[in-house]
Amino acid sequence: MAKAFFRLQKFLRRTQCLLFFLTAAYLMAGSLLLLQRTRLVIQQGSRGTPASQALPVPEEMGRAGPEEPGSLQSPRAGPGLPPGTDGLQEPALEPRHGPHWLLSRNSELRQLRRRWFQGLSSEREPLQTAGLGAGKRTAEHKGSYMGCFTHDSRERTLKGAVFYDLRKMTVAHCQEACAERAYSYAGLAYGAECYCGNTLPAAAAKAEECNSECRGQKGSVCGGINRLSVYGLEGLRAGARRRRNVIYRGCFRAPENLTDTFPASLIQPNLTVEMCSEFCSKKEFPLAVIRGQECYCGFPTGRFSLREGADGLRCSGARNASTAAGGHYCLVYQTPVQDTRCTDRKFLTTKSKVFVALSSFPGAGNTWARHLIEHATGYYTGSYYFDGALYNKGFKGEKDHWRSRRTICVKTHESGRTEIEMFDSAILLIRNPYKSLMAEFNRKYAGHLGYATDRNWKGKEWPDFVNSYASWWASHVLEWLKYGKRLLIVHYEELKQSLIPKLKEMVEFLNVTVTEDRLLCVENNRDGNFKRSGAKQKNFEPFTQEMKDLINRYILTVDEALRGRNFSGLPREYVPR
């Protein structure tokens, strides 16, 4: 009996080992087969599409997606369209004088959009916050610690500028940013948020409640949940060059009653710009107005909107009120203090019933338009993508799911039929393709606020980029015109030139009511943190004649499609003459 049991046990051991080796061999064979098939697919995808059939697609894009015939609007071909060119690759089967030939490129354009989205994540610059990057930073902070205070984001005590940095926030960064803007106090909260102001918070909190570690410096405390770590900045302010952030706005006709128009004033013999700016900065006003020995502080309002400037010669004697055209004109300066009447933003309290897109081709000013919309309406905008650099700049809707309906509108660069029909309405932002292509090329190679180098512009990257992206600019507009349910067409150049009238149209389209003062605040903060910095490219013409011929065809095609839908055509400066 014992022998039989021993033999059975031995047999089971052998069987267990055999099963183990068989399983391992099966898994190895499956892995080799999978690797072989993957290699085959990559080799097939890298062959690309023949130039006679489609737009050249970079090799790393892999296989094209399934085609969707008829997904582009096909308006009548204009009689004045210029003839084709041979310099850039183009379809040989159809003439390039209308949008029909774009039909065969849908799959390639979808792949290009996918590659753009992947590049948005992989090519992103190290996250930075505008305003926190100026100057050499020190690891040790120099401000005086004032204590831990309560913090309410809706009713802020530190009402000045606000900065975010989810990865690199330190006490020193926040202090320097606030000191450069002439604020007296800097407060940190949530480990990543920086608030500036000139009034110390009234409600103190327990020291242990400020317990959030700074994201950019281990061992340092940057406030807590609804708690501020506050520092006094007198030492830093004394060493700062206060005037470098004071901007001359121009000469303007003074309102009839200055004391009623401006909340704060100062009469000072031998008044200087620095003295007036410093006084108004301490009072937390963005405007410093000088007439003779009088200094006034305030905001742009309906009574003093700064829309109509006067000849600078009329203010040549503004330091002497009796000679400045009878005292009717004044000098206006922008102080380092931010106009905070339109900086409060929040998510929608209830889900929006209308799902609105803010759609544009990359490089058309979508981020700037979001800045304007958020400050005008007081509500965050969402995004089909996630960009940590934009979240750091205060676009908190970046982290919210784009279909949550908690944002006033959603940024998107998509133009497929399925993606378009998900939205109930859309603001379609269009920019001159020459400017859009250059802006997106700069973003691709130098981030949101940088410039591409001369090497990028004069290398093979730029011709390849134009060849690939120019048709996307046209197809984006055409597809939204075809599948969009309710559209508001906004041209970037018109928005820039007539900000308040165009912004009013956009706000009304979003079904939000705003005050004139809030719109004037937006105009006063119109640039936000979106001006490019660094070495601007030299003055040279980046577009060859072949590129111009290609882009001009797209311009005429889009212009005709807009008119065919009873919209005004493209601005005159777009259309080649």
From TrEMBL:
GO terms for molecular function: sulfotransferase activity. SMART domains: WSC. Residues 142-234, 245-342 form the WSC domain. Residues 46-97 are annotated as: Disordered. The keyword Lipid metabolism does not apply. The keyword Heme does not apply. Pfam families: Sulfotransfer_1, WSC. It comes from the Eukaryota. Keywords: Repeat. Belongs to the WSCD family. PANTHER family: SIALATE:O-SULFOTRANSFERASE 1, WSCD FAMILY MEMBER CG9164. This is WSCD1 protein. It comes from Drymodes brunneopygia. The lineage of its organism: Eukaryota, Metazoa, Chordata, Craniata, Vertebrata.
